[in-house]
Amino acid sequence: MKHAEILLTGIVQGVGFRPFVKRTALHHGIKGYVENREFGVKIIASVQKNDIEEFLLDILNNAPAVSTILTHSIKYLEHDLQKFTTFEIAPSKKKGEISALIPPDIATCDKCAQEIIDKDDRHFSYPFTNCTNCGPRFSIIQSIPYDRKNTTMKKFIMCDDCNREYTTVADRRYHAQPNACPKCGPELRLIEVVDESPVVTERREKAFDKTVSLLKNGEIVAIKGIGGYHLVCNALKKEVVEKLRKLKYRPQKPFALMARDIETIEDYCEIHECEKEMLEGQQKPIVLLNKTNEILEHIAPGVKDLGFMLPYTPLHYLLFKHFQLLVFTSGNISEEALENKDDYAYQNLANITKYYLSYNREIFNRIDDSIVTFAETKQILIRKARGFVPKPINIKKGDGKPQIFAAGADMKGSFGLTKENIFLGSQYLGDLAFASNTKFYKESLEYFQSIFEMKPEVVIADSHPNYFSTRFAQDFAEEKELPVHYIQHHKAHIYSVMAENDLENVLGVSFDGTGYGDDGNIWGGEFFIVKNIECERFAHLNYLPMVSGERAAKEPWRMALIYLFKYFPDVIDTIIPTATFPQRDMILHQLLNDSVRLQTSSMGRFFDAVASLIDVCQYNSYEGEAPMKLEAFADEKYSEYYHYDFNKQQSLIEVPLIIKGIVEDILEERSKKYISSKFHFTIAKMVFDLCTKMKNESGIDAVALSGGVFQNVVLVNMIKRVFSGSSFKLFWNEKVPPNDAGIALGQVYSFLLKSR
């Protein structure tokens, strides 16, 4: 008889792992115990040697779907241990520095969903039903090891029935830490704000029934979810949706929708198999789907997609016994942080609603809904949050390296921390130009450092001197007497793709709206060669004067005017008349005097300009509106293109011929679909042409593409088509968003490569 110690690291707490190990051990006739430890899970197993290895193989092959095993080891023990008569779950222990990981929040499983609609089940209609396979995790965990006493469920003492489930090996609620029922768990409360004071008007079933009635009568209700509040209303009542738009200061930006089932979504969108799997899976993010009709145009005006999700909590399932379709948008004032504290929600959302369906369990970590889209079968994360955070990313080059704090960027805030070969990225934190989001940033960093016992030894920041994240990183480094390193924004985009795919030499294509360049200009249309650690800027879109600064990003007509002034001034009066754009002449005066020093090579601003030229969008009411509306007119199967020049001596991609071609098509009254499709394909061809030039110079055939522009599914699919049949290998972000929220991973990887 042998005794073996098996150690497992990764997401192995909070996912029913110990009960799974016990059931597996009993199946193999193994005696011993399993316990949660500061590093993950420890198993002591007593059995013949071959049987232990078969036991471990069974664990690795059949671990709970929501777990992630990063490392595993077996050590045979020489010293005698006590004789075990059974296999038990031992109390959790902590003997060293924490390195265990915690799971994301998990959507309600099918069995729990069935119980809440079964009148004979004790969980019938209970909106907080969960088991070891589903329910809140990240949002309620306060510390590790993951035990009930270390969560916001600690104040709810399990009743006899729940405790029996919790202690019965064969039960799926065996050691389910948030286990609860109507007798002992959290309860619903409907709060109405009366004379600026919140008043509990109903509880439990009555609170739910009143909420249903309010929604049916056209009211907007703030509903507390797993990670924060949602603002909810009837999606089919246009007047209610318009009221929400007005009150939330969100005139055009699409709202997220929650539907009863896949069949409901199919009434409005096409769904491919990969999208269906994501909608119905354990993460249940918002999935962007192609519209098939205009019935819900008021939900997402002018864009090609609708963002749908399916119910992912018991409360959602109960709601959708009464509704087929509801708006489920983030509970915040536009651009501000998601509301998760009841008192703050009553105060900050008061202009939108006076009704709040809440409950008496604290949300310890706020986290918004994730957003996913697909280019064919390739997943593109738009927002990484619920269901995906805090899943680790393994970076092989991190072994033996110092712990790192990567501050990320500002537009879509998200930091990252490393320990050994693990990168942990934060949830989406919003635009760090807003004070509530910077507070959210600081809170989240403090939590990640605390719960994972991370002690950064190196700090990395964006090279933009005026970013909040950069200034914060500098202050953090100064306070803790740590070295701080900087990496240029667009280079970090490329390194993020390299990190995901363990690459060292690549051709990099980095397209986005803005980012501080090494020469002090605003970059965003960049081509790089990364070889032997060095990252060389090979080419970029030709610079144009950035008149009006940030206003040019909010008003695309300004960029259109700049392009016309530079390359086709004769048509300015026709396309951008003073009567429509009264500030036009002021900008022209600045251009004529050559008084603008700041220049931009941004591909995002190029898309803005084209959207304006063909009158798709003149004012961005939300970030990316103009490119999204331009994309809606594009046909990804299109293959005509505009011409452009490449000035090799100056490394410039010169676009006058593109502007000339677009203007000629406008004057010939070509359709918006024709021009948009042709422009998109031109950019796809440009990427291929420049990569071919870079390959000829470097010998590299791996291409890393990143930046917010690559959230454009039409462009991505066109690029894939143009490159098909070539010797190039394309790599994209899949584990982090290609937008600014993926920057932290690239910051880390650039440092690791250069510090070898």
Averaged pLDDT: 94
Low-confidence stretches: none
Number of separate strands: 31
Count of alpha and pi helical runs: 23
How is the largest sheet built, in terms of strand order?
7-6-14-8-9-13-10-12-11-15-16
Number of domains: 4
CATH superfamily of the largest domain: ATPase, nucleotide binding domain
CATH class of the largest domain: Alpha Beta
CATH topology of the largest domain: Nucleotidyltransferase, domain 5
How much of the sequence is in beta strands?
Answer: 15-25%
Summarize the main sheet: 11 strands, mixed
Helix and strand layout, with pairings?
Layout (H helix, E strand, L loop, with lengths): L1 E10 L5 H12 L2 E7 L2 E8 L1 H14 L5 E9 L10 E3 L20 H6 L44 H8 L20 E7 L2 E7 H13 L4 E4 L4 E6 L3 H11 L7 E4 L2 H4 L7 H8 L5 E5 L14 E5 L4 H6 L5 E6 L11 H7 L6 E5 L11 E5 L2 E6 L9 E2 L9 E3 L9 E4 L2 E4 L9 H17 L6 E5 L5 H13 L3 E4 L1 H13 L4 E6 L13 E7 L2 E8 L2 E2 L5 H4 L1 H12 L4 H4 L8 H9 L6 E2 L2 H11 L11 H8 L12 E3 L4 E3 L1 H12 L4 H27 L3 E5 L6 H11 L5 E4 L10 H12 L2
Parallel strand pairs: 2-5, 8-14, 10-12, 11-15, 18-21, 21-22, 23-30, 25-29, 30-31
Antiparallel strand pairs: 1-3, 1-4, 2-3, 6-7, 6-14, 8-9, 9-13, 10-13, 11-12, 15-16, 17-20, 18-19, 19-20, 23-24, 24-25, 26-27, 28-29
